[in-house]
Design brief:
By secondary structure, this protein is mainly beta. It has two domains: 136 residues, Lipocalin (Beta Barrel); 69 residues, Sandwich (Immunoglobulin-like), CATH 2.60.40. The strands form five sheets. Strands 13, 14, 16, 17 and 18 form a five-stranded antiparallel β-sheet that branches. It is globular.
Length: 264
């Protein structure tokens, strides 16, 4: 009996070592998973150079490529809500994408949101929209919140637009508290030249977390430890190269939604 126990204890470390975290794929763009109402889980990426949304199966084979109409002189900023039966009620694959233009003379950004189907049909265009959020209100329907920024003014303005959507939001069930919104308010100022303040909220069952700042390709730039004691964090952006950055919270199997921060 003792001999069997000793053999088991000796083999246990080797068994644990075999349960390793394995790299499945390496994408050259920022990307994330989504759950489609009819086609199941997919992984989609944002190709800024070619203005495309590339969608992959969970085995990382290509499923679809959607071309995005980004005007000359503008740049792709974000892709959100790749979905079926959210923006339409006929199983059509649709998505939101945002692009921006930088006025070098007056030094401010202008954003534009488009909601399109996979064949490029435009369902809605919203000028000035930089951030969006979809909220499921149950019996009261599904709403699209659009945050419109006007950076042409010295003190920029923010307007919230509320749209009723024909479909429903499918939860992807990823991580604990998947429906919890860590960033109910956007970073400000954004775009940022010297500093930016990022408001955040941690889930009740998470005492500490890490705020991760990455470049638009997902490469880690900085990380900051945060907890429940404060509700925001100020980060210095003066030494960062100009460009688009992504920030999100992680901790104890939790990963929040990602938000964008522009440094100019």
């Amino acid at each position: 009996m003792k001999k069997s126990t000793l053999i088991f204890l000796l083999l246990l470390p080797f068994t644990l070592l075999n349960a390793q975290i394995t790299l499945e794929a390496d994408y050259p763009y920022s990307g994330t998973f989504t759950q489609l109402a009819n086609s199941g889980f997919k992984f989609f990426t944002m190709d800024v150079v070619n203005s495309q949304c590339k969608i992959y199966n969970t085995d990382h084979t290509v499923w679809k490529t959607i071309n995005l109409d980004v005007p000359a002189g503008n740049y792709l900023y974000d892709i959100k809500y790749v979905s079926e039966n959210l923006f339409t009620d006929d199983n059509t694959l649709s998505l939101c994408y945002i692009y921006y233009f930088y006025d070098e003379v007056y030094q401010y950004y202008t954003y534009t949101l488009k909601i399109i189907t996979e064949d490029g049909t435009v369902l809605r265009t919203i000028e000035g929209a930089q951030y969006i959020n979809v909220v499921d209100l149950g019996d009261d329907g599904t709403k699209l919140l659009v945050y419109v920024y006007d950076y042409s003014a010295i003190y920029y303005t923010i307007t919230t637009l509320v749209y009723d959507l024909p479909g429903q939001l499918v939860s992807n069930g990823a991580g604990i508290n998947a429906d919890f919104e860590a960033f109910s308010r956007s970073a400000f100022p954004n775009p940022s030249a010297d500093y930016s303040i990022i408001p955040y909220t941690l889930p009740d069952n998470l005492n500490e977390a890490v705020l991760n700042l990455c470049n638009e390709n997902g490469k880690p730039i900085k990380s900051f430890n945060v907890d429940h004691q404060f509700k925001d964090i100020r980060i210095n952006t003066a030494q960062l190269p100009k460009g688009v950055y992504i920030y999100y919270l992680t901790g104890n199997n939790y990963k929040s939604e990602a938000r964008k921060l522009v440094v100019n």
